[in-house]
Specification:
heterotetramer; A: Butyryl-Coa Dehydrogenase, subunit A, domain 1; Butyryl-CoA Dehydrogenase, subunit A, domain 2; Butyryl-CoA Dehydrogenase, subunit A, domain 3; 3 domains; four-stranded mixed beta sheet; four-stranded antiparallel beta sheet; globular; B: alpha+beta; Butyryl-Coa Dehydrogenase, subunit A, domain 1; 11 helices; 50% helix; 16% strand; AcylCo_DH/oxidase_C (chains B, D); oxidoreductase (chains B, D); FAD (chains B, D)
Chain lengths: 387, 379, 387, 379
């Protein structure tokens, strides 16, 4: 037995013994997800136990170093962990922006002290993080952000407003882009961390066209942020932010490619049938696009693994995947007819078709608009002039 | 006839535009009703104002107390209703209902039309059975019972059904479910025993009913047109409703486009007004073209319908299909060009997207009408 | 009887007596058209007689003043003339760029002497004109043209190259945009007229992807042009050119709107049938667009007549009409299948379907590209910033 | 299997790319043949070179003297043929013909495959009857006659038909014209009596025949596969030809796109490189995405076909439909972005447009395959 085989056997045995049966069922609702944080209310005892057991072994962040709360697995081991988790359908013990986004940034840009402090908190699910990037005036043009941190010697006084802060009303801390030099657009932004209970921080949920949402507006009114709470160098927060955005875009393009974009003609046919030949033709054309895009998703992941994909290819995946997904829901609405229009009925589980359709409209806006994606493709892949 | 408004029509348009943009605007109507959890689907006071301005009787003959005008005039009202997303029973009552009742007995007309013209009554079309528009298939059973009929079955997507004073119901009195003939139209009063409403709010905040008919008895006087020959009147009501919804759609598209171009001229990104970006300019210019063409198709179909032309039927489907596609493009581009704020409930552009969807579905969507264009063209 | 009724009766009687029966048959081939000019070979005696009789009464240009070779008809009379011509299906006695393009420009910008001289020649069909606008380096950006006329006191020496000169190899004279001031982009162009037999002028026909074409490249090698042969002021030729381009665009948009864009589904069904349901759906969607555009064409013409159309609306008509026409031929090719691919066969009359399809690709390029049309709509109709 | 080339495939691609871009380029091949009024449809010397490089035998088994490789490898060759618009019998001979003959008797294989591998023979598929691809309907009559069969009828769109050493003919031996079964495949030698060719040049300068069969007699040894059971072999040949033409289309699209982006980087208008205009940038970026997706669909289908997967059939139609649409967009955008010069015969972009059309039509166009995707998916 090789080392890896032995490792796999250990993991398998540990999972068999420690993953509660309830935690092996598919996630159905938002509140099946364990987000952690100060105020988190566990949905079940099993959810709590599962988190605690994983925390004890560093399994919430298996590939982070042990000193930071991880299990110190190398890539081969981490892959085995994922495979064994998938084999029994185990739920992730902990999900959070801390793990997905802030963690990787701290690992790359944080001081040793910051890593020990914040990464361990994240790994244990003690602190729930949110992300303060977008502002009302700076959407696609993120770097034009205006939230300002005035230098007061050992701290900044932060004033301004963020928008699209997911779960800001549930988060404990925020990682936030703040302008610390008004004279320098790109090199005048710092990446700050602070507690959401700091006086002067307030949030307001955003209602979307699809209904309630996890997004908030977040307001900063003379918020005091100690100087130690900066990640990376002063005024070089844009480097940290770009690193994170890359992560986010890959996550979105990955998601778009794999799960959601299956062919739909056969599904529509089973649910009520297709009695309009023009709709049938539209579904057929969509299915061609969707099945071709599924192949593209597979190819993209294969190429990423071996470094063959163009570094800007995620932009193409994000563009095509989100546009297709919007089209998919347009067709589902057309196929669903008047039933799909219902907004609050029991039959539609509270308007699921319509709300999902409307929600997809954000796909081509959030995480970089389709227009920005096309700009990036034109510039970085096609090398068009002045792009 | 030239494809623009004559003087009377232009005057009507002026009046209606100001009136609806004022009284029927999004904030005092759609948002107020929606946020107040209105379950009626319209504001009776505004409906009364429509009557005071004579709008409710546009398609009612002068003999019946209306103005005896045509689809071009009704379209003027509908376009502004569309542009302001005004919740209104105008389409179901003053267009579809009034057209159907125009072919009814004097007795039936006398029972309902004065209320319509006075802005006191509402009518609803109970036609579809199932989630998609299939007017050629009617299964609701209407058996002879004594002097009248007994109705059993169900109807879906009955806009304003729960508050209507009468339902215009297509029932099967002969033949099998998919026979074109053998159907009869009834005006069923709201208080008829055996009617059940399951009223649901739709995406655009309008209210539609699933209506069940449990051995609902109506007398022979409730029949509109001929027994077993209801298809002829139904087709007229459908044409009116289809071109009406197409006209309202052009208003929705125009309203969304106006919001969007205004936004392009004020929103800055990367140090420029986003309307300066050529990619958006070209998309806006293309969209403008599509909306103009849809408008032309609608007025052409209205004129043909008013003139009783044999080409009207084809052109009505062209207009509904084209208006649906163009307006759908307008709301999609509208939300996308607004970016994040376009996704928020606070901005109105999303409301246009919602209304577009519901209107497009009413009496046949773009796919239905494209297919119908092919069928009517012989292929 | 009103004056106009009397006028109509006169015209009708004259046409009855003077239009030869052969000239009342539809034009079938290019050489059924009477283009006039020094080298024109009449196809038939009837064609010649019909021209001569019309020339004698000024009927080749009925709304031009009598002093310039016209019949001096007012708009109402000219409409009657067109109606009566159409009633008997009479062919135009004379077709030429001189009538359509140069004539209107001379009427607006020419000196009295020029009008008397050139307009009478045009009216009599003595001189065939071609148009020298585009250059290889200046397509959409017409005003960047480089053909240069060096001032030599009483004449210019013109050097340069034109492209897309229709019938340059058959024309007697050219009306030509020539740069006469290199320092001033817009106000450095003059509108010159000169004989194509002037030493130094040469032409070469352009073969298109659809086959032979009337277009030529035209070369000027030290061509002497007397100063009297300028229309309008020195360096203000751009005003004349813009006036002409407006005419051209309206002609193209008018043509696009009326004849070519009929629905095609029923035609395809009759010729061989539609056995593919996806093709049927595409034809149905096209027919919706085509029938809607036909209504737009009708509305546009109605509105133009009473001055209700936006002055830039022809750009919209040209854009939509040409894009639709291209799509129409894509569908006709798809419907025609392998037969439509044939390039030289008798069955396809020498590849008519394929050549027509390819020829339509120029629709959205010539007379202003679709991109330029969209720019103009954005700027002049939508009033978008910086457009 | 990952969706990129393995080492051997990457090596093959390197070799083939250089070879075809050199010997098979537009000027020395397509333009030379076309302008010289070639009536053969390809250059025999180049075909011989294909053989010398081993390309002709890619899909021929090692037992039959070939390389025994798969559709991914054949696709590598076809993509470069597409990119260079190389007139070549590769698709009809080494892909479609060789696939069909791979299922023939040893005798038949021995008769034709050595010539194919040696680059001395050409094969043609005689399948379609009429202007559109309808492989499910075969009317050409093949009656039993003595020891063999007598063929009567006609075939259209037979690419390389007039110069082929053998025609692979689908004939009806049982059942009615629209029966799926009851057809038999024949390898009919070029010199069989009663064959008439009407060879026509197509828009892309390739040569296709209308072939008439006037009581053409062939012996029983000419049958490929089973009598009355030709559909199975035909389907394999069709799959090979369809994914092959899809691969060639991605080459056509890629070639057109490369020309176009190069032009965007050199042509100036209004004082700027036209590639600086954002509207064109966005269209180019969208087109890039479509071409990438088409490539992915093609390689996925090739791998499934090579693996004998049951999903291959569906994916072949996805790939052909997607490649057709993407490449059609590439050539339309290519000509438009080239402006006037794109319309001239002197520029190559128009040649891409012509080839796209002919290839898209071969063995089913985008509409045919989209419909087939729906049918195979059960709707």
């Amino acid at each position: 037995m090789t080392d890896l085989e032995a490792f796999r056997a250990d993991i398998r045995a540990w999972l068999d013994a420690n993953c509660p049966p309830e935690m092996r069922r598919p996630i159905e609702d938002e509140d099946d997800i364990c987000w952690g944080g100060r105020a988190f209310a566990f949905k079940s005892e099993a959810q709590k136990i599962w988190l605690e057991r994983c925390v004890a072994h560093g399994y919430t962040v298996p590939d982070w170093p042990k000193a930071y709360g991880g299990a110190g697995m190398d890539p081969a081991q981490a892959k085995i962990w994922r495979e064994e988790m998938a084999r029994i359908g185990a739920r992730p013990p902990l999900s959070s922006f801390g793990i997905w986004m802030l963690g990787p940034a701290l690992l790359k840009f944080g001081t040793e002290e910051q890593k020990v402090h914040y990464l361990n908190q994240i790994a244990r699910g003690e602190i729930r993080w949110c992300q303060g990037y977008s502002e009302p005036g700076s959407g696609s043009d993120l770097v034009s952000l205006q939230t300002f941190g005035e230098d007061k010697g050992d701290h900044w006084i932060v004033n301004g407003q963020k928008i699209w802060t997911s779960y800001a009303d549930k988060a404990d801390w925020i990682f936030c882009l703040v302008r610390t030099d008004k004279a320098n657009k790109y090199q005048g932004i710092s990446f700050l961390l602070f507690d959401m209970t700091t006086p002067g921080v307030s949030t307001r949920p955003i209602k979307l066209i699809s209904g309630a949402s996890p997004f908030c507006e977040t307001f900063f009114d003379n918020v005091v942020v100690p100087k130690a709470q900066i990640v990376g160098e002063l005024n070089r927060g844009w480097d940290v932010a770009k690193y994170l955005l890359g992560h986010e875009r890959e996550m979105i393009s990955g998601a778009g490619g794999s799960e959601r974009l299956n062919a739909i003609g056969a599904v529509v046919q089973r649910n009520g049938g297709i009695d309009n030949p023009v709709l049938r033709a539209e579904l057929a054309q969509f299915d061609v696009d969707a099945l071709a895009f599924a192949a593209m998703g597979e190819k993209f992941l294969d190429e990423i693994k071996v470094g063959k994909a163009h570094p800007a290819q995620p932009n193409m995946m994000k563009y095509s995947g989100t546009e297709l997904n919007k089209q998919r829901h347009e067709l589902l609405m057309a196929a669903g007819g008047s039933t799909a229009l219902e907004w609050e009925s029991a039959e539609t589980r509270g308007g699921t078709p319509a709300r999902s359709w409307l929600r997809t409209k954000a796909n081509s806006i959030e995480g970089g608009t389709s227009e920005v994606m096309l700009n990036v493709i034109a510039k970085r892949i096609l090398d068009l002039p002045g792009a | 006839m030239p494809l623009y408004f004559n003087e009377d029509q232009a005057m009507l348009a002026d009046t209606v535009t100001g009136f609806i943009a004022g009284e029927g605007a999004i904030k005092p109507q759609l948002r107020r009703l929606r946020d107040g959890n209105d379950t009626r689907g319209y504001d009776p006071a505004l409906w009364k104002q429509f009557a005071e301005m004579g709008l409710t009787g546009i398609l009612v003959s002068e003999a019946d107390g209306g103005l005896g005008l045509g689809h071009v005039e009704a379209g003027i009202v509908l376009r502004e209703i569309g542009r302001n997303l005004t919740p209104s029973p105008f389409l179901s009552t003053a267009v579809v209902g009034a057209t159907a009742l125009g072919h009814a007995s004097e007795d039936l007309k006398g029972r309902y039309l004065p209320g319509v013209v006075a802005g006191e009554s509402v009518l609803a079309l109970a036609l579809d059975e199932g989630a998609k528009h299939r007017p050629e298939r009617i299964a609701l059973k209407a058996e002879r019972a004594g002097n009248g009929f007994r109705l059993s079955g169900r109807k879906d997507f009955v806009i304003h059904g729960a508050t209507a004073d009468a339902l215009i119901v297509a029932g099967r009195t002969a033949g099998s479910d998919s026979d074109a003939e053998g159907i009869t139209l009834f005006a069923v009063p709201k208080d008829a025993a055996g009617i059940g409403h399951n009223a649901v709010r739709l995406v655009d905040s309008s209210i539609a009913s699933h209506v069940t008919f449990d051995r609902v008895e109506v007398d022979g006087g409730a029949v509109i047109g001929e027994v077993d020959g209801g298809r002829a009147v139904l087709d007229k009501a459908l044409a009116a409703g289809r071109i009406g919804s197409a006209a309202e759609l052009t208003g929705v598209g125009g309203g969304a486009f106006a919001m969007t171009t205004a936004y392009l001229k004020t929103r800055k990104q990367f140090g420029k007004l986003i309307g300066e970006f050529q990619a958006l300019q070209h998309r806006a210019a293309h969209l403008y073209s599509e909306l103009e063409i849809a408008e032309a198709a609608v007025i052409k179909a209205q004129q043909l319908l008013d003139a009783g032309s044999s080409r009207a039927d084809l052109m009505v489907s062209v207009a509904k299909a084209k208006a649906s596609r163009a307006t759908n493009l307008a709301v999609r581009e509208g939300v996308q060009m607004h970016g994040g704020v376009g996704m928020t409930d606070e901005f109105d552009i999303g409301l246009y997207m919602k209304r577009d969807r519901a209107l497009a579905e009413f009496l046949g969507d773009a796919n239905y009408h494209a297919d119908r264009v092919a069928t009517l063209s012989g292929y």
